[in-house]
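User: I'll paste a sequence; please echo it back and then give the predicted structure.

Assistant: Echoing your sequence first, then the prediction.
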Amino acid sequence: MKLKDTGEALTIKNWLIGDSYRPDAIVFADGSEISASQLSSMVQAIGTAGNDYLYTSNYHDDKVYGLDGNDTLGGYGGNDELLGGNGNDYLYGGNGNDTLYGEAGMDTLYGETGDDHLYGGDSNDILYGNEGEDVLDGGIENDVLDGGAGLDTMVGGLGDDVYVVDSNDLVIENEGEGTDTVKASVTYTLSANVENLTLTESAANGTGNELDNVILGNSYNNVLNGGAGNDMLDGGTGADVMSGGSGDDTYIVDNANDMVIEIVGEGIDTVKSSLNYILGANVENLTLTGSAASGTGNELDNMIIGNSYNNTLNGGAGNDTLDGGVGWDAMIGEVGDDTYVVDNTSDVITENAGEGTDTVKSFITYTLGSTLENLTLIGTATINGSGNSLDNVLIGNSSANTLDGGLGADTMFGSGGDDTYVVDSANDIVTENIGGGNDTVKSSLSYTLGANVENLTLTGTEASEGTGNELDNVITGNNYNNVLSGGAGNDSLNGGAGADTMAGGMGDDTYIVDSASDVIIESINEGIDTVKSSVSYTLSATIENLILTGSAMTGTGNELDNMITGNSYNNILSGGAGNDTLDGGAGTDTMFGGIGDDTYLLDSTSDVVTEYFGEGIDTVRASTSYTLGANLENLTLTGTNSIKGIGNGLDNLIIGNNGNNILDGAAGADSLVGGLGADTYIVDNEGDVVIEDAEAGTDTVKSSTTYMLSANVENLTLTELTAINGTGNGLNNVITGNSGDNSLYGMDGNDTLCGGVGNDILLGGTGDDVIYGDGGGETVRSISMDNSAPITIPDSFLAGVSKSYTVNESGIIADLNVWLNITHTFDRDLSAYLIGPDGTSVELFANVGSSGDNFQNTQLDDEATTTISSGTAPFSGSYRPSQALSVFDGMNTAGVWNLKVVDNANGDVGQLIAAQIEFSVLSETSDGHNDTLYGGEGADTLYGCGGNDILDGGSDNDILKGGLGDDTYLFGVGSGNDTINSYEGADNGLDTLQFQNLVLASIEFARSNNDLVCTITQTGETVRLSNWTLGSAYQVATFQFTNTTLNAAEVNQRIA
C-alpha cells in the first residue's frame, strides 16, 4: 500500500500465500477500516517485461497480468482472471470458474477444475479445458482445443484447428476458417464446416458431412460414412465398413474383411489396396499399394494400376485401362476396348480375338501381339513401334520414332520428332502435322509422299516409282531401275544402283548420278539444279551445276551459266557456253571456260586454265601466286597468305587478299586493288590504276612511268633508267627516283624524297620533309650485324630468345633483308620477329615447316617470289616473310635492333645458330649529278649528296646539307630560320650562299659559338652556317647579294 501524497509505502509480506499472513483489517486515522477480504479483491498481480512466475491465493478472485516475456501464471482458488500478454505463456486457472487469455504468442492454457473460459488469442495455441463445462476459443492461427471432461464448447476460429472431442462436446466452425480436424474418442458425426475426422481410442463409427472429408478409423472395426463430397475413407486396421456416399471417393483397404459400399451413380470411386483385391459393384478404379500382387476389375470401365511388384491385373468386362507400373506385369483386358500401359519388356498382355479394339501405350520399343489393334508410344525416349497383321493405328511420341505397321492397312502418325515410316501396303496411311520434324517413308512398293512428309526411300526387290510433294524432298531409289519425281520444292534425287530416270520438277534440285545410263529430266525455268556425279558427266540442257564425286575425271557444262566443281583427282573441266565457274578442287586440273565471262578457282600452281581469244571477260581466283595466261582478263587473290598476282598484255583487274601482296598488271592499262596488307604495286603503263582503302597497310608503288600516288598509298619508287617523274599525295610519302633525271614532288605530308642517280628536281611540298639529291634506291652501302655464337631457344611456352644488334652508323633505309640459320626438333612450333629501334615489329614467319626441317641459310626478302608460308622445308634460299619488311623503309638505321625467336609449345629444343640484318641505305655521297632541291612549306631537311646541287629550304626552319660538289644554297625573306651544313671533308667544293633579292646592307653577320649567323635585319630571319670557325672545310666559298659578292675571308673579317 502506498500513500498518494508522499509516495511512502507499506509492504505486507507473503500476502498472496494465504490468510495466515494477512492482518484481519486495516484501520485508518478517521476510524474507517477495510477487512482482509475487502482488500484482497482490490489486489492485482502484475508481471514485468521479463519471464515472470506469478501465483495467486487459494481463495480469492484474483487478477494476474503477465505482460511481456514467457510467463507462468497460476490462479489457485477463486474465480481468477489470467492475462498472458506478449510471449509464449503457460496459464493455469486452478479451482474456480476462471477466465484465461493467452493473448499474443504461442500459449498453453489449462482451465483445470471449474467451468472455465479459455481464449487463445494470436498464434498457434493449445487449450485444455480439463474438468467442467468449459468454453474454448482458439482465436486466429492453427490451434489445438481439448475440452476435457464435461460438456464443452469449442470454437476454433481462423486457422487449421484440431478439436479433441469426447461425449457431447460442441464444435463450432464458420465457413472458410481453414481445414479443421476432429479427433473423437466416441462415435462422431462431423458438424458443418469441419473437414476431417479421426477416430481415437475405442470410437466405433465416423460420419462426414457435405464437404470433401478425410475420415480415419482406428484399430477397431469401424463403420465410416463419407456423406456428400469427394471423401477419403481409411478404416485403419480392423474389418471396416466404408460407404463414401455421393462424390468421387477414395477407399484405403488393408484388411481382407474391409467392405466398400457404393451405390450406382455415386461418382467415380477408387480403392487403394495393400493386398490382392477384386473391385465390388459400382467402384470404378483400383490402385495396388504395398505388396499387393493382383487386382481385378468388374463390369465397369476400370482404371487398374499396379505397384512396383510383378502384378497380375484383370480388367474384366468394360473398357478398362491397365497399368502394371514398375515390375514384370501380366495384364488381361477381357471384353471391351481396353488400354494397356507398358514400361517393361517383360510385361505380358493377354487379349483374345474378338474382345474389342485394344490399345497399348508404351514407354519402350514395342511390337503388338496378334490380337492387339493399336499402339501409342509415350514418354520422350527415342523408341520404335511395330504392328501385326491387323489394320493397326500406330502413333509416335515427341521424339524420333520408327513406325512399322506390318501386314494390314495401317495408319501411322508420328507426332513430333524426325520419324521413319515403313510402308508395305498400298492402303497404308501416313499422317504428319506441319512442323512435325523431318520425316522419312521407307516403302517396298511405288509410293507418293503425303503432306508434311519430307523424304522417301524405296526398298524392296523390284523397279519402283517414288514421287515427292511440295516440300524439299530427299528421294532415294533401290538397286533397280527407278523412276523418281521430286515435284515442287528443292529436292535431292538419288536413284541408287540401276539405270534410273529422275525428274526434279520445280525448285533447285540435286541429282545423284552413279551410272552413265541414269537419265535426268528438267524443264526450262524449273530452278537452279545440280548434278553430283561419281562418273564422268556432261550436263544436259536446263541443268546448271555439276559436282564430280568419287573417281569421276571429266565434267562438261552446257550453254547455261554453270558451276562445275572437281574432286581430288586430276580433272578436266569444260564450261561450254555461258558465264561458268570452274573449281578443280585438289589435284592438277585442266579447265576450259569456253564462251562467256568465266571464273576459275585455283588452289595449285599446277592447275591449267585455257581461254581462247574473244571468249569473254574471265576471272581467276587463286589462293597461290599466279600469272594470268593468255586471254584471261582478271585475277583475284584469295586466302590469307602473302602471295603475288601478275597480269598479262590485256587490261587486267588484279585484286589482292589481306596478305602482303605484289600486284603486277604487266602490259596493258591495269587496275590493281590491294587488301589490308602492305602491298607492292608494279606500274608500267600510264593507264594503270592503283586502288587502296584507308588504313589498309603501308603500300608501295614501283613505277617505270611518270606516276602520281593515288589515295591511301604511302610510297613510290621509280624504276628503269628513263627520265620520269613521281608525285606523292597527302600522306607521309617515301618517294625514290631512278637513275634518270627525275622530278619528285612530295605534296602534303612529311615526305622523304630520294633523287637517286641523275640530275633531279626535288620539291617536298607542305610538311616536314627530308630530301636527298642522290643515292636513289640502289644499294650503295650495306650495314651487316650478326651474332657471334649459337643461342639456345628456351623450351618454354612463349618465352623466346632475343638477339640485340646495335647499329651506330646513321642512314635512311631503302631496303632491308634478314638472313638466319636455325636448328630445331620441330620447326612448326617456331615464330620469329624483327623489332626496330622505335618498337615497330614485323613477323618473319610463324608455324611453318614440320619436324626438324630447319632453316638453312634462309633469307627473308620482300622481293622473293615464294612466301615462307608456302615454301617447302628445309627452308634454304630466299623467301617473302609473313609480314612486309618494307615498313622499315625510310627509317634511320641507327639504334638497337632485336631479332626474337619464340618456341610456341613445350617438348622440343633448338638453337639460333647465326643471323644477320642487311640494310640498303641512302648515301650522302654519289657520282656527282646536279640536283635541284626545294623544301617548300614545313621544317625540311635537304641532302644534296654529290654533284653541283641547288638547295632551297622554302618557308619554315630547314636544314640544308649540300654534300660533295659546288652547291648553291638559296635564302631570302620568308625562308624562316635555316641551318646549313657545308662540310665536305678533304674534297671541299666551292659552295655559294645566295641571298635572293637582298643587298649586303640588309644582312647582319655574327658569331654564335662555332657557328656563323646571318640575319635579315628587316625580318629577323636567320641562316646559320654550322661549325664555320672550325675551318674552310665547313665554310661556303661565296656569299652572293644583288649588289655585290663576298668570299669567306671577307666574311671572317666582319665577325673578327
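The radius of gyration is 55 Å. The CA atoms of residues 5 and 1030 lie 122 Å apart.
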